[in-house]
Design a protein that fits this description.
Distance between the termini: 12 Å
Radius of gyration: 13 Å
Order of helices and strands: HEEHHEEEH
Number of helices: 4
Length: 113
């Protein structure tokens, strides 16, 4: 089952040039499914980094703006788009040049998987 899911995610990744990895993790940052190529930094895949997203979404909702559905961060060579889909967090890692709008549309495809 997990291998089928990974293959499905790999096929979805191929539809958007520049997407280098997709991680599905629980709220504590524990990766459930990881699909990535060799260009993705290992630090992005660590539970400590992934759990910070859950913490950030919880804290931002306390500011009175409502529930945070996504967080976009752009780093030197990668952009990471985190989707808050309780009880999971889906993270898409892509090149900085990758169209963020296309990454956004991936969520619809991934929701079907």
């Amino acid at each position: 089952m997990a291998e089928e899911l990974k293959r499905s995610i790999q096929e979805i990744m191929k539809t958007t040039p520049g997407v280098r990895g997709i991680v599905i993790a629980d709220r504590d940052g524990v990766p459930i499914i990881r699909v990535n190529d060799e260009t993705v930094p290992e630090t992005v895949m660590r539970p400590g980094f992934l759990s910070s997203v859950g913490f950030a979404t919880e804290q931002s909702s306390k500011l009175g703006y409502g529930v945070t559905n996504h967080i976009i961060s752009i780093h030197e060579r990668h952009q990471i788009v985190h989707f808050n889909i309780p009880p999971l967090i889906l993270s898409v890692i892509a090149d900085t040049e990758c169209n963020t709008g296309k990454i956004w549309k991936l969520i619809r495809l991934l929701a079907r998987v």
